[in-house]
Write a structure and sequence with these properties.
Order of helices and strands: HHHHH
Largest sheet: none
Structural class: mainly alpha
Distance between the termini: 17 Å
Number of domains: 1
Helix content: 55-70%
Amino acid sequence: MGKYIDDKTFYDILNIDAASIPVDKQEAENFIRNAYKDKERTAEVNLAYSVLKNFRLRDAYNWWLKHSEWVSVIQQFDIETVDVAEDEAEIRRALELAEVRVRESG
């Protein structure tokens, strides 16, 4: 799974097991709020709370965590200067990672 701040995910920052978050939106918000309420309000804690409490942002963040390795490879390419012949190995690596992730989530 991907990492974010100092090798910690937002779940790590709030000491939450992602699998333990209730499916119901209101229950999930309460669960995350309870994890947040005793934390010192640092910038990273506030950011983690802001993302995880919002189900749409949390879903997007979870997608990013699941695909962070692939996203990282893609971000290395400069669309303006990419040379298919020169960068073929890296392009193949990115495509292989994407293919593996699609199979894993399918």
